[in-house]
Amino acid sequence: MKNNYYRKALLVVKMGLFLVMSSCELVEYSPYQVKLPDSEKDLNRKNAEKIAALNLKPTDTLRIALISDTQRFYDETEDFVQAINQRTEQKGKKIHFVLHGGDISDFGLLEEYRWQHEILKKLKMPYMVVLGNHDCVANGDKVYAHMYGPFEQVYQFARNRFILMNTNTMEFTEDIVRLDFLENNLRDTKNYDNVFVLAHVSPFDEDYDKQKEEPFARLIRQYQAYPIHGHKHTHKISQPYNDGVNYMIIGSVSNRKYVVLTIVGKKVSHELINY
Fold first, then answer.
1. Residue 74: CB partners within 8 Å, gap ≥ 6?
2. For residue 84, what are the contacts with CB-CB under 8 A and spacing of at least 6?
3. Is 237 part of a structural domain of the chain?
């Protein structure tokens, strides 16, 4: 299936105008209304339960595919799903789950979220999504909350902890980078071997709250976490603070690349894959 994104977006607008103007039918419609069937609600938690059901042991090899910024790139996302499904069928290349670095939508539209989910649910493994800045446009943050859950989430599989948090400071008037949440989930080091912090906007990005940059980087450094971000659309690994911590930017699927993160005990490696 090839999705014509702009045709679909126009259709959504026309439908909204039709409902608003249909006064003779006494239709009440709100652009902020979010109605989802149960099958489309709380997907991160549901998929985390599927990952937990794998009963991974700390000595097992864990492989995670990383993508980000799928937004309007529907064909590229479909091709990713096909490529990763084929890869996971190969001996020694099983992918246990997929992490999405945010911007699953472009304009925060409910239908955009649904179009992406219709593609990603074809994965042969679970997937989870962190909130991106485009996902917050209009009432997209409410859609995310219904479809994927709270803006801050924590999951642990074997002795690998995954912290998902909201760093989209340009889209909110309130203070949303919750460093207390981050530290509370980092400090119990005896309960995990590796900890990964997935947040769409990196602390060194111009769209980040500069008052929170140094404290965020300090916590990452102090607890030897692995920071993973999206937003910039180009894959890159760097040490912006010259402190020995590698920050990973996941490129957009528009580049037709994804990252495979491989974890064996306390050893973490990655590979950039073209598809």
1. 2, 3, 5, 115, 116, 119
2. 65, 95, 98, 123, 124, 125, 258, 275
3. yes
Q: Is 0.85 topped by the overall pTM?
A: yes
28 located within any domain: no
**What is the sign of the dihedral through the CA atoms of 186, 220, 264 and 62?**
positive
Residue 184, domain CATH: 3.60.21.10
How many domains is the chain partitioned into structurally?
1
Range of the domain at 232: 36-274
CA torsion angle 83 87 116 156 (round to 10): -160
pLDDT tens, per residue, the chain with 275 residues = 444 544 455 444 444 443 343 344 434 345 567 889 999 999 999 999 999 999 999 999 999 999 999 999 999 999 999 999 999 999 999 999 999 999 999 999 999 999 999 999 999 999 999 999 999 999 999 999 999 999 999 999 999 999 999 999 999 999 999 999 999 999 999 999 999 999 999 999 999 999 999 999 999 999 999 999 999 999 999 999 999 999 999 999 999 999 999 999 999 999 999 99
Does 98 fall in a domain?
A: yes
